[in-house]
């Protein structure tokens, strides 16, 4: 059984003190720092440019998981890799198979990792299923992208189970990352359906004790995976 990974989403942190948000995540033992890049076109809201990623990456011992919710990722990917992104995640709605191949070549040339994200209404495309072995993560959005603090969409559970089965049947190392509306109370629901990597924004930063919340998220997810 793959160990649980916790990825606090700094979009839900104090935007006036992002370095503090990264430090809090590290204090809580974050496996990844999740950075939601929004361009205001692919989804509402505009968030972090590559300069912000560069400034924050320098102060972090945890790898940066950069979720590109942007319309033309091919134009921006090198900027984020140059800024120190350890893993870049593309939205499936913004690429096709040839552009995936081109992006994969770019990411490999930097010796970094790549992932594919799916909006709630998007299923894993056939071409992507065949290329799962090239991806270090598949991210299932359990909210519509744009803002933290929304409710988890339980209609995504069958999709999570389906992708978990493909990954397990093929003995792949690919993470199954769940993103949106996760908190201490519902993380078990997505963990027992096969999620192993959990993004949490409000589930960490809107809690009274974010470090404690991260420990609880990890404990609850680990228990649920063990009993699945
Ligand atoms: C959705 C983002 C999420 C979100 C997570 O646009 O991809 O990472 O900010 O925040 P919570 O956990 O608060 O839903
Ligand atoms: Zn995200």
The geometry reads as globular
Q: Using the coordinates shown, work out and report the CATH topology.
A: TIM Barrel
What percentage of residues falls in helices of 4 or more residues?
25-40%
CATH superfamily: Aldolase class I
What would CATH call the architecture? Answer: Alpha-Beta Barrel
Strand order of the largest sheet: 1-8-7-6-5-4-3-2
The percent range for strand residues is 15-25%
* Largest beta-sheet details: 8 strands, parallel
Helix and strand pattern? EHEHEHEHEHEHEHEHH
**Spatial gap, N to C terminus:** 11 Å
List segments where confidence is low: pLDDT < 50 over at least 5 consecutive residues: none
Small-molecule components bound: D-xylitol-5-phosphate, zinc ion
Let me know the number of strands: 8
- SS field, number of helical segments: 9
Q: Compute the CA-based radius of gyration.
A: 16 Å
If you had to describe this structure to a student in words, what would you say it looks like?
By secondary structure, the chain is of the alpha/beta class. The chain has one domain (5-227): Aldolase class I (TIM Barrel), CATH 3.20.20. It is 37% helix and 18% strand. It has nine helices and eight strands. The protein has an eight-stranded parallel beta sheet with strand order 1-8-7-6-5-4-3-2. 46% of the residues are buried. The mean pLDDT is 97. Zinc ion binds at residues 9, 34, 36, 67, 179, 199.
Keywords:
TIM Barrel, binds D-xylitol-5-phosphate, 9 helices, alpha/beta, 37% helix, 8 strands, globular, binds zinc ion, 228 residues
